[in-house]
Design a protein that fits this description.
77% of the residues lie in helices and 3% in strands. By secondary structure, the protein is mostly helical. The protein has one domain. The strands form 2 sheets. A two-stranded antiparallel ribbon has the order 1-2. The protein has a two-stranded antiparallel ribbon with strand order 3-4. β3 and β4 form a beta hairpin.
Length: 514
């Protein structure tokens, strides 16, 4: 009975967004209030701080303050990402990049795969924390995609990389909690995506095919994109460790994919193949007003900064040294590394990109003002969704759901990935899901007499999938393409994909354990 009560907030969010069609802000506020009432009435909403249980006003206030802190750290990413998008539109850089991509392939579906698959995976592997979707979705819209298709493609496309996102952060969190080594955990997690990841690659290919009026999805190119990513991804996870599978797979895979496209194009061109793809002209730099390098300056600056700050130990460690932390009532807390946070990278990319493009002051100001005006409703939606998540966590509701699932005993492997996805759905972070449920997965494995490593891998796998449907990820993504208030349309598309992928992961976990 308590587990059913604990599930009500999640059910309410899904019902209001999918069934009723409410915006994330409206559904979130109503569900957040209901979650607080339920936590008090049904779960004895109280907290054991150093001075004993907190008064109810302090407990509710603490949740809201921590939720506000989390929401602002996400807004800090969305703001400059929106600014880059607005800047690119105002300077004509987006049009120039589209013509540049046409030099690789005249087929817009191939260019879309480069963005929705490799670009998102690179940013996930290097920075994570919402950066891939915040940049890729607007890029796809600028390339002619409908906003829902753009957000959906970016959400689905980056998911296989989340397990090793932000230079392996989710797995490194599991290492700290579980005591299992990084290489062992990397190889416990990677096989799930290696076996099943083609499903998400196919989903991205289908989304792209439906969004571009070219007749059918580019299945051959989608298969090539998947293979060229997963081969280095799997090798790095097996022989190196958890830090670089996603980043290395994206970089090496993208290089191989572009080489394949150009090579086939040259062959087809010599053989008298389709001129539309082989000979698609790019505009002269003079006509576009800038060259491709200048047009892509914000993205190139971001890539350079990501590689510099994530892969050079001395730089990385120096930036991580500064941490801003706070605690409230000895219970609620927050921390941020301002010099290492993706928001700083995106802001620097905006400023340096504008300088490289020689953007005029009016264009820069308009980009900043327009982006800032879009953030109000997004902040409300994020604050509401994170309040739901923190209330469920502090009140023990999330744990109640997990404990109920653990009653499955020997059938547990079928549900283990779903617990990882639940953690990310509630918290918005694969790392947070792993922190929340890694020890729980170990304890459940021990109680059921099951090997723990396949279940720890299932946890990391499921935590990655949860990013596809996490409400405040969808809120942030929708905001970047002008879909605020229509987040339910995105969730309606991504939920079946995530559900199927989690179910397949459960069956694979069952097979691994057996």
């Amino acid at each position: 009975m308590r587990a059913l009560l604990a599930a009500l907030p999640i059910a309410a969010v899904l019902l209001l967004m999918l069934g009723v069609g409410w915006s994330a802000a409206r559904a979130g506020v109503v569900a957040a209030v209901g979650t607080l009432v339920l936590a008090v009435a049904g779960f004895g909403f109280g907290f054991g701080g150093a001075a004993g249980p907190l008064p109810l006003p302090a407990a509710i206030g603490g949740v809201v303050v921590e939720a506000g802190f989390v929401a602002l750290t996400v807004i800090a990413i969305i703001g400059p990402a929106l600014g880059i998008y607005q800047l690119q539109e105002r300077t004509g850089a987006t049009d120039r990049l589209q013509r540049g991509l046409a030099r690789i392939s005249g087929d817009p579906r191939v260019a879309a795969l480069l963005i929705a698959w490799y670009f998102t995976l690179f940013l996930e592997g290097a920075a994570g924390f919402g950066t891939p979707i915040a940049l890729a979705a607007p890029f796809l819209v600028a390339a002619g995609f409908r906003p829902v298709a753009a957000v959906t493609a970016a959400l689905v496309g980056h998911a296989v990389g989340v397990s090793f996102g932000a230079v392996g952060t989710p797995v490194l969190a599991q290492v700290t909690i579980s005591g299992v080594s990084g290489p062992d955990l990397a190889w416990a997690t990677a096989p799930y995506h290696l076996v099943l990841g083609g499903f998400l690659a196919a989903a991205v290919t289908l989304i792209i095919g439906r969004a571009v009026p070219m007749g059918r999805p580019p299945w051959g190119w989608g298969a090539a994109a998947a293979v060229l990513f997963f081969v280095p991804y799997g090798l790095i996870a097996r022989f190196v460790g958890p830090e670089l599978p996603t980043l290395g797979g994206a970089l090496l895979g993208a290089a191989g994919f572009v080489a394949l496209v150009l090579g086939l194009r040259r062959i087809l061109g010599r053989a008298g193949g389709p001129a539309g793809e082989a000979d698609a002209p790019a505009a002269e730099p003079g006509r576009a007003g800038m060259g491709v390098l200048r047009a892509g300056a914000p993205y190139l600056v971001l890539i350079a900064l990501v590689l510099l700050t994530r892969l050079i130990p001395a730089v990385r460690d120096g930036l991580q040294d500064l941490t801003v932390q706070w605690r409230l009532f000895d219970t609620f807390s927050g921390a941020i590394r301002p010099l290492y946070h993706p928001a700083l990278l995106l802001t620097a990319a905006f400023v340096l990109g504008a300088m490289a493009q020689r953007a005029d002051v009016a264009s820069v100001r308009a980009a900043v003002v327009t982006a800032t005006r879009q953030l109000g409703v997004v902040l409300v939606a994020l604050l509401a969704m994170v309040t739901i998540a923190l209330t469920m966590s502090y009140a023990g509701m999330t744990g109640e759901l997990a404990a109920a699932a653990a009653q499955a005993g020997p059938w547990w492997p079928l549900l283990a990935p779903a617990i990882g996805a639940l953690g990310t759905f509630v918290t918005g972070s694969a790392t947070a899901s792993n922190v929340l449920f890694t020890e729980f997965q170990q304890s459940t494995a021990a109680a059921a007499g099951l090997p723990e490593r396949p279940l720890l891998g299932a946890q990391g796998f499921g935590a990655a999938v949860g990013n596809i449907v996490c409400p405040h990820n969808i809120v942030a993504a929708a905001a970047t393409v002008g879909l605020s208030g229509q987040e339910g349309r995105v969730l309606r598309t991504t939920l079946p994909i995530a559900g199927a992928y989690v179910a397949l992961g459960g069956m694979l976990a069952w097979w691994f354990v057996g």
